[in-house]
Amino acid sequence: MTWRMVGCITRLVPQKGVHLIRHAIYRTLELGGQFVLLGSSPVPHIQREFEDIGNHFQNHEHARLVLKYDEALAHLIYAASDMLIIPSIFEPCGLTQMIAMRYGSIPIARKTGGLNDSVFDVDDDTIPLQFRNGFTFVTADEQGFNNALERAFNYYMNNAETWKELVQKDMSIDFSWDSSASQYEELYEKAVLRARTASRS
């Protein structure tokens, strides 16, 4: 049997969608996957809740909760995960999805803020094919999240070659400032050209 490994690397705070992270642990196992969480919470009752969940799965071979900050371990989880969940309620920018893609872990992200600007659903026909790089959902509830997670699992199981191509594409995406700067320059030049054209007329 092929195990799909779902990772989550985050601060456990309400902004990050902790109710969906909690749900993801159980749903991943129901779908026959493995789940690993790395993170901790400054909110005492959230930290306790995840400690209880971690204790519940202490001897489970397919689930592990590591409730601390560990930079070295984070990189190992990025590298080992097939998918990485980012179910944020809001996210001004977000680096997790970019790091995940560089490691070849496909993001499953909520369409909000910076996530909406960098993760584009593989099934979204309104997005050019070359930009589609993950799985997204809109509503921050279990149903919305389930839809994205289950589509990702089905894609992984039924489209092995296409999944490999998706991984390769994600690993080659350029999120550097060089790429962003050239886009800003292009926008600036177009704006200047429009302004000059308007002033002449």
TrEMBL record:
Transmembrane segments: none
Catalytic reaction(s) noted: [(1->4)-alpha-D-glucosyl](n) + ADP-alpha-D-glucose = [(1->4)-alpha-D-glucosyl](n+1) + ADP + H(+)
Enzyme class name: transferase
EC number per UniProt: 2.4.1.21
Pfam family, one: Glyco_trans_1_4
UniProt name for this protein: starch synthase
